[in-house]
UniProtKB/TrEMBL annotation:
This is enoyl-CoA hydratase. Residues 329-507 form the 3-hydroxyacyl-CoA dehydrogenase NAD binding domain. It comes from Persicimonas caeni. The keyword Chloroplast does not apply. InterPro entries: 3-OHacyl-CoA_DH_NAD-bd (IPR006176), 3HC_DH_C (IPR006108), 6-PGluconate_DH-like_C_sf (IPR008927), ClpP/crotonase-like_dom_sf (IPR029045), Enoyl-CoA_hyd/isom_CS (IPR018376), Enoyl-CoA_hydra/iso (IPR001753), FA_oxidation_alpha_subunit (IPR050136), NAD(P)-bd_dom_sf (IPR036291). In the central section; belongs to the 3-hydroxyacyl-CoA dehydrogenase family. It comes from the Bacteria. One of its GO terms (biological process) is fatty acid beta-oxidation. It catalyses: a (3S)-3-hydroxyacyl-CoA + NAD(+) = a 3-oxoacyl-CoA + NADH + H(+). Pathway: Lipid metabolism; fatty acid beta-oxidation.
Length: 723
């Protein structure tokens, strides 16, 4: 046995004619595949080949509720730096799984818990799969999320097992399915209680051995036998239908993700090759595509993002051993869009919620909204109807402060008005206990100012959720100078419990996210004011990778809200924050955006597809717009955003570049394939960034002058990420 492949990866035991291969990577909470694991598998395969009297093999995990979560991402990251080693590694993996397929006895995977990526590819190379009915059992191929494709035969085996359409869908979206769904799809043969999983898997192997014929791999080329009988008729008989499916998949992928992510397109090509030219050709194509993708910047950035997110999700509050206050009950003030959204997510995660508004009208709007969100979950079968009732039962409404005495955390989400927020805090504290943490969901007001109204300012901080709360993954936690570490730890614990990725930032106007998005929209406003067309600005930034353009974003957020934020930011940074008059003029026309169906776009059935040309009548230049270079729009907007991020780093609003990159991607829609705004600036090179910003500042205004930190780093030829 080689040094890198200690026994701790896999163990083998033979009992009554069945060989049990147990995967258990020691020192890790979860099992991952890796080169040492492949080596150990190869040894085990030799042992299996030499063991007489076998009737079957069962592959299972030694970790309860965890089969294999995928290929080791640390190794994947290393491989992206050593492209010459990728192809041999893939070939070796393909061969190893091929040897399992070709064993002289049936191999059954006994799946309990996460069976993802390489884990599912291993399970699919087995002759049968039995899954446990454990809630933790999830199966899927999430590789595209890391900018690569499944590289251990997954692109070939999955469509052959579940049918082309479903297989494509799972591979292109990375979607996971639970055990029951997996059975329905034909991905597993049976679903049983975890307590009898090994026994049922062994019986399955014995039965297959006795019956024979188990070696046949489901095939997909024309004239071969499909595992999915309906598809056999449709596709084997009709090549144009199959072509249509592949072309539709390309079209949908282009629409959903644009053309910035090469992995889904590569996956479609590789699957198509397998259907056209057979399994082995598909496998070869898979290996080639994987080797090409893994060294691409998109994969490098997405893999890096994965690690950054992990670091942020695990980061401890300072000092690291600070304990959070226990939180069972949460009070929410303001049953509007944000308050009700927060109440629903909290109830979903098991908290008892007390929701307060000023009057019955406000309260019932909020309660109805939470009910609608819960009903949607039931409709989409995310939760059962009784579970939905339990969840809604956790939220109680009030127009008084009754019940707030028991709340351990109170989240304030009343209108964005400092005086109102201060008076609400004062009233609230008459009714809460001393260890209650008070969080404001303000988008721009410095927390220090809100906390000044409190008897216990150390218990006050910001918990800035994003809209819609149930969908947006980021939570920005803001501590003012006096916030206690224990309060921060509490917000972090609850935020993570609510499923959010939390960044902790220091206090200031607009903290981090609102400041940065404000600078981006501000620059877009200038470009509009100078004569550009709305659709040109939006298209340019969508082409750059943002999910929506800045003008559309203002319509979504609400022109009134955006303007209020802009005012706060302008007051706070008046020496350098130069605001165009364009946005004010548009708001003065009563255009609030999507919410009053009147904004930069015309709204019909809730959708704003067409620009409202009458907006131009409110702007300098009127309807006589001029073309602006797409690259100039893109550069001005992203560099304005970068500059504000740099100021935030310089002023220690954000303490680590990582928090900034996670913040812009998960909170502001910055394109993930660029790896984060600071990382993107690093890849462009800070000397070049600084030089461009000086030129843009000369041409368009001093607000684009680079922050000192950019200039200093550029002069020293440093990066944001260099230590
Ligand atoms: P909203 O107008 O939808 O809701 C505010 C609610 O607060 C209303 O129902 C109002 O009746 C209620 N309210 C007012 N005074 C109250 C009081 N004294 N006690 C209890 N309730 C009271 O506003 P929203 O969009 O939910 O925003 C709320 C807060 O969240 C604001 O500070 C806003 O800046 C912030 N925020 C909003 C968004 C967003 O996208 N809408 C995103 C992040 C943060």
């Amino acid at each position: 046995m080689s040094e890198e492949a200690p026994k701790e990866y896999l163990s083998l035991r033979v009992d009554d004619g069945i060989a049990y291969v147990c995967i258990d990577v020691s020192g890790q909470r979860v099992n991952t595949l890796s080169t040492p694991m492949t080596e150990r598998f190869e040894e085990v395969l030799d042992e299996l080949r030499d063991t007489a009297g076998l009737e079957g093999v069962v592959i299972h995990s030694g970790k309860e509720g965890n089969f294999v979560v995928g290929f080791d991402i640390n190794e994947l990251q290393e491989l992206s730096q050593r492209p010459e080693d990728v192809r041999p590694m893939i070939d070796r993996g393909h061969q190893m799984l091929g040897r399992f397929e070709e064993l002289s006895v049936p191999v059954v995977a006994a799946v309990d818990g996460n069976c993802l990526g390489g884990g599912l590819e291993l399970a699919m190379a087995c002759h049968a799969r039995i899954a446990s009915n454990n809630d933790k059992t999830q199966m899927g191929l999430p590789e595209v999320k890391l900018g690569v494709i499944p590289g251990l035969g997954g692109t070939q085996r999955l469509p052959r097992l579940v049918g082309l359409q479903t297989g494509l869908n799972m591979i292109l979206t990375g979607k996971q399915v639970g055990a029951k769904k997996a059975k329905k799809l034909g991905l597993v043969d049976d679903v049983v209680h975890p307590g009898i999983l090994l026994q049922v898997a062994a019986e399955k192997a014995r039965k297959m051995y006795a019956k024979g014929g188990w070696q046949k791999r489901p095939k997909a080329s024309i004239g071969e036998v499909f595992s999915n009988p309906g598809e056999m008729v449709n596709l084997a008989a009709k090549t144009p239908a199959r072509k249509l499916i592949f072309n539709q998949a390309r079209e949908t992928t282009r629409k959903q993700a644009g053309d910035k992510y090469p992995a889904p397109f590569a996956a479609i090509d590789v699957i198509e090759t397998g259907y056209k030219d057979g399994f082995d050709a598909g496998l070869q194509a898979e290996g080639d595509a994987f080797a090409k993708l893994v060294k691409d910047d998109v994969a490098k950035n997405l893999i890096n993002l994965f690690f950054m997110k992990q670091e942020v999700d695990k980061a401890k509050p300072f000092p690291w051993n600070t304990k959070a206050y226990p939180v069972d009950k949460i009070g929410v003030l303001g049953a509007g869009l944000m308050g009700a959204g927060i109440a629903q997510v909290a109830a979903y995660k098991g908290y008892e919620v007390r929701l307060k508004d000023v009057d019955d009208e406000g309260l019932s709007w909020g309660l109805n909204y939470t009910k609608e969100l819960i009903d949607k979950l039931v409709k989409r079968k995310k939760i059962s109807a009784p579970m939905g009732d339990i969840m809604f039962g956790r939220i109680s409404g009030t127009t008084e402060y009754t019940g707030f005495g028991q709340a351990d955390l109170i989240i304030e989400a009343v209108f964005e008005d400092l005086d109102l927020k201060k008076s609400v805090i004062k009233d609230l504290e008459e009714h809460t206990h001393d260890e209650a943490v008070i969080a404001s969901n303000t988008s721009t007001i410095p927390i220090k100012e809100i906390a000044s109204a409190s008897k216990n300012p150390e218990m006050v901080l910001g918990m800035h959720f994003f809209s819609p709360v149930h969908k947006m993954p980021l939570l920005e936690i803001i501590r003012h100078e006096g916030t206690s570490s224990k309060a921060v730890a509490t917000a972090l614990e609850v935020g993570r419990d609510m499923g959010k990725t939390c960044i902790v930032v220091n206090d200031g106007s607009g903290f981090f996210t609102s400041r940065v998005i404000g600078a981006y929209i501000n620059e877009a406003g200038w470009i509009l004011q100078e004569g550009a067309r709305i659709e040109d600005i939006d298209r340019a930034m969508k082409d750059w990778g943002f999910p929506v353009g800045p003008m559309k974003l203002v319509d979504e957020v609400g022109m009134d809200v955006a303007l209020k934020a802009a005012k706060t930011l302008q007051e706070a940074f008046e020496e350098r924050w130069d605001a165009p008059t364009a946005l004010k003029a548009v708001a003065a026309d009563g255009r609030k955006g999507k919410k009053n169906k009147k904004g930069f776009y015309k709204y019909k059935d809730g959708k704003g597809k067409e620009v409202d040309e009458t907006v131009y009548d409110l702007l300098p230049g009127g309807r006589d717009r001029k073309p602006v270079d797409k690259e100039v729009i893109q550069e001005r907007c992203w560099l304005a955003m970068l500059n504000e991020c740099a100021y935030c780093l310089q002023e220690e609003i954000a303490e680590h570049p990582r928090d900034i990159d996670i913040g812009v991607i998960f909170g502001l829609g910055f394109p993930p394939f660029r790896g984060g705004i600071l990382r993107h600036a690093d890849s462009v090179g800070l000397p070049r960034v600084a030089e461009r910003m000086h030129r843009l500042a000369d041409q368009f205004g001093d607000r684009l002058k680079p922050a000192d930190i950019i200039v200093e780093k550029a002069e020293k030829n440093e990066n944001f990420y260099s230590e």
